[in-house]
Automatic annotation (TrEMBL):
<dbReference type="GO" id="GO:0043916">
    <property type="term" value="F:DNA-7-methylguanine glycosylase activity"/>
</dbReference>
<comment type="similarity">
    <text>Belongs to the alkylbase DNA glycosidase AlkA family.</text>
</comment>
<dbReference type="GO" id="GO:0006307">
    <property type="term" value="P:DNA alkylation repair"/>
</dbReference>
<dbReference type="GO" id="GO:0006285">
    <property type="term" value="P:base-excision repair, AP site formation"/>
</dbReference>
<dbReference type="GO" id="GO:0032993">
    <property type="term" value="C:protein-DNA complex"/>
</dbReference>
<protein>
    <recommendedName>
        <fullName>HhH-GPD domain-containing protein</fullName>
    </recommendedName>
</protein>
<dbReference type="GO" id="GO:0005634">
    <property type="term" value="C:nucleus"/>
</dbReference>
<feature type="domain" description="HhH-GPD">
    <location>
        <begin position="121"/>
        <end position="276"/>
    </location>
</feature>
<dbReference type="GO" id="GO:0008725">
    <property type="term" value="F:DNA-3-methyladenine glycosylase activity"/>
</dbReference>
<dbReference type="InterPro" id="IPR003265">
    <property type="entry name" value="HhH-GPD_domain"/>
</dbReference>
<dbReference type="GO" id="GO:0032131">
    <property type="term" value="F:alkylated DNA binding"/>
</dbReference>
<dbReference type="Pfam" id="PF00730">
    <property type="entry name" value="HhH-GPD"/>
</dbReference>
<dbReference type="InterPro" id="IPR011257">
    <property type="entry name" value="DNA_glycosylase"/>
</dbReference>
<dbReference type="InterPro" id="IPR051912">
    <property type="entry name" value="Alkylbase_DNA_Glycosylase/TA"/>
</dbReference>
<keyword id="KW-0227">DNA damage</keyword>
<keyword id="KW-0234">DNA repair</keyword>
Length: 286
């Protein structure tokens, strides 16, 4: 049976209690427990300009697609309202934006390995081209449920080239799979690591940079307190929201968005919506 939302006064009381205990600790966020099913020298890329399947800019090209993750949708409507009330209270400028748009909604059922492999394949490609290659990649593996480290390692660079995967991306996929095989990474460890550890571990994989990790944490893992300081859309949104003359740099982003903790992922989502509304992004983010 669905939970009944609390009254505004009850929500405010709960929110005040939770935030006062530890306002910047994501572990205090009242999200429901995850239901997880068991599944079996870095080369950086320019994260700010690459296109990943989780990128909100890319989502605009395909308004029917949704961000993907291993878990069921984490926040209930009441829990989302708690987060949005906190943002409204902490940032009046953001409050106006929140009241002008629908709440964020993220859900999917891909494992971390599958989501990371797809992220690599979609980088720096137009959506339709990337989707076509990914469809062929799934078929080559024997179905999406068979996109696991062993099957990826078994594919030669030549096999991958025949379906449109570049030699460089083939090496990225193999490096990701090898790090799963040697125990550097696993689906379970990814779900358990804190944000800082996860960033350090995932950027060891060839072809995965900071921007890609931030998108993965927001859209695939649904972590609520991620600020993608290198994302151009979020930076432009912050610039417009606060009337800045220049694009904010990472340290300035951290300072300006400090008030959004522990819900900076939600705040970032509204920056993409702000840029969409101003015509910088073409259609609604899904």
């Amino acid at each position: 049976m669905a939970k009944r939302c609390k009254t505004q006064s009850q929500i405010t009381a709960i929110l005040t209690s939770q935030i006062s205990e530890n306002p910047s600790d994501p572990s205090k966020i009242p999200f429901r427990a995850r239901k997880i099913r068991k599944l079996s020298s870095k080369t950086p890329i320019e994260d700010e300009t690459c296109i990943d399947e989780n990128s909100p800019q890319l989502k605009l090209q395909n308004s029917s697609s949704l961000p993907e993750t291993l878990t069921e949708p984490l926040p209930s409507n009441c829990e989302i309202e708690l987060a949005l009330n906190q943002l409204r209270t902490s940032d009046p400028l953001l409050a106006t934006l929140i009241d002008s748009h629908r709440p964020p909604h993220f859900e999917s059922d891909r494992s971390p390995f599958q989501a990371l492999a797809k992220s690599i394949l979609y980088q720096q490609l137009a959506y339709n081209a990337a989707k076509s290659i990914y469809t062929r990649f799934i078929s080559l593996c024997g179905g999406e449920s068979s996109v696991v480290p062993d099957s990826v390692i078994s594919l030669s660079a030549q096999q991958l080239r025949l379906i449109g995967v570049s030699g460089r991306k083939a090496s990225y996929l193999h490096d990701l799979a090898e790090k799963y095989k040697n125990g550097t990474l696993s689906d379970s460890s990814i779900l358990e690591m804190d944000d800082e550890s996860l960033l350090a571990k995932l950027t060891l994989v060839k072809g995965i940079g900071v921007w890609s990790v931030h998108m993965f944490m927001i859209f695939s893992l649904q972590r609520p307190d991620v600020l993608p300081t290198g994302d151009l859309g979020v930076r432009k949104g912050v610039q417009r929201l606060y009337g800045l003359k220049e694009l904010p740099r990472p340290l300035e982003m951290e300072r300006l968005c400090e008030k959004w903790k522990p819900y900076r992922s939600f705040g970032s989502w509204y920056m993409w919506r702000l840029m969409e509304a101003k015509g910088v992004l073409a259609t609604a983010i899904q």
